[in-house]
Amino acid sequence: MVSHDNPHNEFLVVVIDAAKKAGKVIRKGFYQTKTVEHKGLVDLVTETDKACEDLVFNHLKQHFLDHKFIGEETTAAYGATELTDEPTWIVNPLDGTTKFVPGFPFVCVSIGLTIKKVPVVGVVYNPIMDELFTGIRGKGSLLNGNPLKVSSKDELLNDMLSARTDTNITRKQD
């Protein structure tokens, strides 16, 4: 449930809607054959990545005409965009494309808003597992509406650590 006592709540409501709409596109594409392009040696991009970025940008632009936008696929195609003090949405439309392509469910749409270069709102939505992480600066983070808490463990030996090891992708030789 979104409280109405924070000025960033309007941003959160709109970005959750954008993430859920992109999630529908991701969920549909997840179960289909994918057309994959390479951007660099390891990074992959699919039509779903591009469609989700367009959808998110268009949705946010309908609500926030004066905001700036930085997207993973746009940046890959047109070069880096400088982060300024202006309100700026930073979008990874399909975070985890290397997992999306072979059908591992650890994918999401990640969207954040910075104002004066400070992150103030963030949403991460995994539509395959239906997990919605949300946060507003200074107000904590939620998973599907329930507060998240940090571990009370004070030593790494008493906790669990996970590492990503999926960057060794081989290319098909012609």
Q: Can you walk me through this structure?
A:
By secondary structure, the protein is an alpha+beta fold. The protein is 29% helix and 26% strand. The protein is built from four helices and nine strands, in the order αββαβαβαβββββ. The strands form two sheets. Strands 3-4-5-6-7-8-9 form a seven-stranded mixed β-sheet. It has a two-stranded antiparallel ribbon with strand order 1-2. Helix 1 runs antiparallel to helix 2. The C terminus is likely disordered.
User: Number of helical runs?
Assistant: 4
Shape: globular
Terminal Cα separation, in Å?
Answer: 52 Å
Strand segment tally: 9
Low-confidence stretches: 167-174
Gyration radius from CA atoms, angstroms: 17 Å
Proportion of residues in extended strands: 25-35%
Task: Give the % helix.
Answer: 25-40%
Biggest sheet features = 7 strands, mixed
Mean pLDDT: 85
Spell out the helices and strands N to C: HEEHEHEHEEEEE
**Which structural class should the secondary elements be placed in?**
alpha+beta
Order the strands across the largest sheet as they lie in space: 3-4-5-6-7-8-9
Could you write a compact summary of the structure shown?
With about 170 residues, the chain is of the alpha+beta class.
What's the arrangement of secondary structure elements?
Layout: H1 9-30, E1 36-38, E2 44-46, H2 47-63, E3 68-71, H3 72-78, E4 88-95, H4 97-100, E5 108-115, E6 118-126, E7 131-136, E8 141-143, E9 146-147
Parallel strand pairs: 3-4
Antiparallel strand pairs: 1-2, 4-5, 5-6, 6-7, 7-8, 8-9
